[in-house]
Amino acid sequence: MSGTPEGPAHPEPPGIPPARPALTERELHDYRAAFRVSRLAMALVDRDGLVVAANDSLGALLGTDGAALREQAAADLVDLAADGRTWHAYREVLRGRRSRFRCTRRLKHPDGRKLWAEVTVAPVPDTGRVLLSVADISERRELQARLRHLQMHDPVTRLPNRSLFFERLSGALECAAAESVEAATGAAGPTEPAGAPAPYRAPGAYRSYRSHSHGRTGRIGLCYLDLDGFKAVNDTLGHRVGDRLLAAVAGRLTECADSAGYTRSGGHLVARLGGDEFAVLVEDSTGTEQLADLARSVLASLERPFDLGGQRLSVSASIGVVERAAFGTTATELMQAADTTLYWAKADGKARWTLFDPERNAHRMTRQALSSTLRPAVERGEFALEYQPLVDLAGGAVRGVEALVRWHHPQFGVLPPNRFVAIAEEDGSIVELGRWVLRTACEQARQWQKDHPRERPLFVSVNVAVRQVWDSDLVADVAGILAETGLAPHLLQLELTESAVMGSAGRPLQALQALSDMGVRIAIDDFGTGYSNLAYLSRLPVSVLKLDGSFVRGFQDEEHANPADELIVEALVQLAHRLGLTVTAECVETSGQAARLRRIGCDTGQGWLYSRAVAPDRIAAMIEGTTPLRV
């Protein structure tokens, strides 16, 4: 209950008041008669706050005779001393420092019922007294309450709606913040205003927060729920059945919260946030296990089929669970975490609950930050290429290099391709980035050729995403870049993953064929990890197989070698050779692996045994022979 002062806080500057005509005896009689018979409860109060006269309406409102109220403290009759702000405003009117004051109070009628009253206090001119009037506004408040209930509740499920949910959530967080500040400062709560009458001292409304904090944990939990496949119910059975299903789901959610004991202290709220989204807010939660138990209970409850007028429907749900300290958390942050966690539950297979993971969320935030800055980074020149040698296993000479892109991010440092290439494929920036990589790699390969004309020229291998084939004219791009740089087509090798090549049809297949006809070599990267459909090898314009590193790692333990690994690799190499393909082994890390691959007949090797990906000048040193390679 709060007071709402009206009128100026201070009177006009002192001066000579305007002359007022004196009231006649008749007029005074009429005013007194009106005061006595008025249906509005009123009392005349002196400067000390004592009732001088009260009409019968006020007596009836308070369950007594109007005459019996004389010389009683008006503040006690209508509870004006319940809080400091109201008491101060009331005293200001009594002292003539405020022209009017109005507040709302909840009073107890002698018959036991509660009523809402609007209390107004205003000076009576030329008397030194004030008029206190009390209007019963219970019906208005009840109407407002009904309208608020309609405004704050969902008509389909009768649950609190999004507005009430956020109001309750914000209130819980604000309360936690206030308690945390009090605990840190040791404050004892608001003090009593000076000059308060005896009934004011030690009012219940002004006890310290500590008196209400028994059983409080200072934590908050949220289960954010979305029904799986609800749209199909609406589309096939109609919105009427869908609404009935939502109402039935709401009932089970409420039962789960009730049976788990969350309603005993009123510390929960089951709400429909919109569509097929629901939330269960748990105030003063005791930890993640409490929320996990609730989520498991909800999933188990929803597994039981719903019988809706003879129709049995089954539905599942995905739930994002967040539980944390309330202090320092905002409603926006909590809902963002819940929404993210709900997305994880959906992505992980639906019909499950997932707990918020800060580390996983940090990765998501980093990914989002990278996505938003990737396109501008190409224009700003934040990317650079490093090159890893492709070594002839028989002779040990460098035959080519693979171009590997690095992002020199201003915030996250140097990032390898696996941190951003997938993002670039998703948002389409891989086309622009891939074109830049292709041009830069071809320019560098041609530069090495010019700088070392007597040495055998190196070919350069560039990774190509399947989206580059679909979203750009790759054939035209390659032809234009080769023409601009002067690099011979046979010195360019394009690598596509096995899954991308094996699924090629239509335009991608035509593009690969056109590139092969141009003289460009096509390599299948990470061969053996995807479809491994050997029938495609005879129909695709492929010239190189790059064996996935998982095969080569099986050669690492020479003392306990697995014969099956060697047999598989040997069979793949022989098959490739019969088809006229060359074979490159990835992830060669030891001389023992290199020796066994050489014995099997593998053509080239790539890995840390020879070199990591290095800057262009290091490759130049290898061409000149000043940097030896281990073989």
How many E strands? 22
- From the alpha carbons, calculate the radius of gyration and give it in angstroms: 41 Å
Based on secondary structure, the structural category is alpha/beta
Number of helical segments?
Answer: 21
Overall geometric form: elongated
Query: How is the largest sheet built, in terms of strand order?
Result: 14-15-17-18-19-20-21-22
Task: Provide the residue-averaged pLDDT.
Answer: 85
What characterizes the major β-sheet? 8 strands, mixed, barrel
Poorly predicted ranges? 1-17, 187-214
End-to-end separation: 86 Å
Fraction in helix: 40-55%
Q: Into which percentage range does the β-strand content fall?
A: 15-25%
Write the layout of secondary structure elements.
Layout lengths: L2 E4 L18 H13 L3 E5 L5 E4 L1 H7 L11 H4 L6 H11 L5 E9 L5 E11 L4 E8 L1 H15 L9 H24 L33 E10 L1 H8 L1 H21 L8 E7 L2 E7 L4 H16 L2 E3 L2 E3 L2 E10 L5 H17 L5 E3 L2 H23 L2 E10 L5 E12 L3 E3 L5 H7 L2 H22 L7 E5 L2 H6 L2 H12 L6 E6 H5 L4 H12 L2 E7 L16 E4 L1 H5 L9 H16 L3 E4 L5 H10 L3 E2 L10 H9 L7
Parallel strand pairs: 12-13, 15-17, 17-18, 18-19, 19-20, 20-21, 21-22
Antiparallel strand pairs: 1-4, 2-3, 2-6, 4-5, 5-6, 7-9, 7-12, 8-9, 10-11, 14-15, 14-22, 15-16
3D structure, described in words:
With 631 residues, the protein is an alpha/beta fold. It contains 21 helices and 22 strands. The strands form 4 sheets. An 8-stranded mixed β-barrel has the order 14-15-17-18-19-20-21-22, surrounded by 5 helices. Strands 1-4-5-6-2-3 form a 6-stranded antiparallel sheet, sandwiched between helices. A hairpin with a 2-residue loop joins β8 and β9 (277-283). The longest helix has 24 residues, at 162-185. The termini are far apart. Mean pLDDT is 85; it is low at 1-17 and 187-214.
